[in-house]
Write a structure and sequence with these properties.
By secondary structure, the chain is α+β, with helices and mostly antiparallel strands. The chain has three domains: 107 residues, Rossmann fold; 69 residues, Dna Ligase, domain 1, CATH 3.30.1490.20; 112 residues, 2-Layer Sandwich (D-amino Acid Aminotransferase, Chain A, domain 1), CATH 3.30.470.20. The strands form three sheets. Strands 10, 11, 12, 13, 14 and 15 form a six-stranded antiparallel beta sheet that branches. A five-stranded mixed beta sheet has the order 4-3-2-1-5, sandwiched between helices. It starts with a strand and ends with a helix. It binds adenosine-5'-diphosphate (ADP) and magnesium ion (MG). Adenosine-5'-diphosphate binds next to strand 7, strand 9 and strand 15.
Length: 359
């Protein structure tokens, strides 16, 4: 019997367009001799719409635009064996969808609730990794509440810790949305106001001139990493527009860096993934300075996933092609699910036993 995969795409975040591109690539990569696909689109408002059911490779580029009926999210249980949430950003990559799938007891591809939520929050991630001996850029967290009440002391705190230029980021976004660079106090004010349009918590980070190096990570308990790839930028800061609309970036895979730096980045990526309780997949991003110092930037738990995105290309370079990569991720989802069922059964059984014993 064919395995039925539910592909969730779209979603409520500003990154929904990227999700649709990633989902389109994913559904084309399945081997339809062994899989059939139920697509489900999540609208900006959070409603779930049944999309096409596919038993063979789609030929149309517009296939995902066709949705048929509104469904209740819980109904997803009847529609497939494993869910692949091809969703980026808040309400997709941040543990919320993952929590829902845990609650209804469905296997799903990618990171679990904890790692998804932590990795989506740039401030919490920084705090968690502080004791791990991995360099991170200095930063100052800012709450909108403090900013609106004590603007001057927020400025003083930032200027006491960091030097311009700085990068201002909402704690929870992705794909450069709401992020900007500030060269002085006036720009800092504009940047903070922009960041607070997206979140009530922001992070002001030391700006750095550096190369951007990325490592692919896969696995549950047994964690594997790729060699590094490099993002080559034609612009100083690659924002959402530069990244996805103007295509002002290219990739160098493998990155042209010393082998010891490549190994160090791989080792760090593995350590970070394990520390944050990663499972399934992630892409770990670093800055690399002229002096060959590596600074951790972020862990993306559902990195861009089109056939031409960095994460799949990093694996392609290691000899794992796009279709096999997707199959491996489904296998990992099933494996983690089976293990969880076991732990859950043991805990429930023990609890029942002890509560019976105490009666
Ligand atoms: N501290 C920094 N110094 C220099 N460039 C930065 C800094 N922080 C972010 N950037 C630039 O902004 C981009 C987006 O920032 P990042 O923290 O990766 O957020 P996102 O989650 O949106 O990808 C980075 O890829 C990099 O080009
Ligand atoms: Mg990034």
């Amino acid at each position: 019997m064919k395995k039925r995969i539910v592909i969730l795409y779209g979603g409520r975040s500003a990154e929904r367009e990227i999700s649709i591109l990633s989902a389109l690539s994913v559904i084309k990569a399945f081997d339809y001799r062994y899989y059939e696909i139920q697509t489900i689109s999540i609208s900006l408002e959070g409603t779930w719409l049944k999309g096409p059911f596919l038993t063979e490779k789609p030929t149309s580029e517009n296939i995902l635009e066709k949705t048929t009926e509104l469904i209740s999210p819980c109904f997803i249980k009847n529609l497939g064996d494993v869910v692949f949430p091809v969703l980026h950003g808040p309400m997709g990559e941040d543990g919320t969808i993952q929590g829902f799938l845990e609650t209804i007891n469905m296997p799903y591809v990618g990171t679990g609730v904890l790692a998804s939520a932590v990795a989506m929050d740039k401030i919490t991630t920084k705090y968690l990794l502080q004791t791990k001996g991995i360099l991170q850029l200095p930063f100052v967290p800012v709450l909108n509440n403090d900013w609106s009440k004590q603007t001057s002391s927020v400025f003083e705190k930032i200027e006491g810790h960091l030097v311009y230029p700085v990068f201002v980021k909402p704690a929870n976004t992705g794909s450069s949305i709401g992020i900007s660079r500030a060269e002085n106090r006036i720009e800092l004010q504009t940047s903070l106001e922009l960041a607070f349009q997206y979140d009530s918590r922001a992070l002001v980070e030391q700006g750095i001139k550096a190369r951007e190096i990325e490592i692919g990570v896969i696995g549950n308990d047994d964690v594997q990493t790729t060699n590094a790839g490099e993002i080559i930028k034609n612009v100083d800061f690659y924002d959402y527009h530069a990244k996805y609309i103007d295509n002002q970036i290219s990739m160098d895979i493998p990155a042209n860096i010393p082998e010891e730096i490549n190994q160090q980045a791989r080792e760090y990526a593995k350590k970070i993934y394990i520390t944050l309780a990663g499972s399934g997949l992630a892409r770990c991003d670093f800055f690399l300075t002229k002096e060959n110092k590596l600074f951790f930037n972020e862990l993306n738990t559902m990195p861009g996933f089109t056939e031409f995105s960095m994460y799949p290309l990093l694996w392609e370079n290691m000899g794992l092609n796009y279709s096999n990569l997707i199959e491996e991720l489904i296998h990992l989802a099933e494996k983690r699910f089976a293990e969880k069922q076991h732990y859950f059964a043991v805990k429930t059984f023990e609890n029942c036993e002890s509560s019976l014993g105490s009666q």
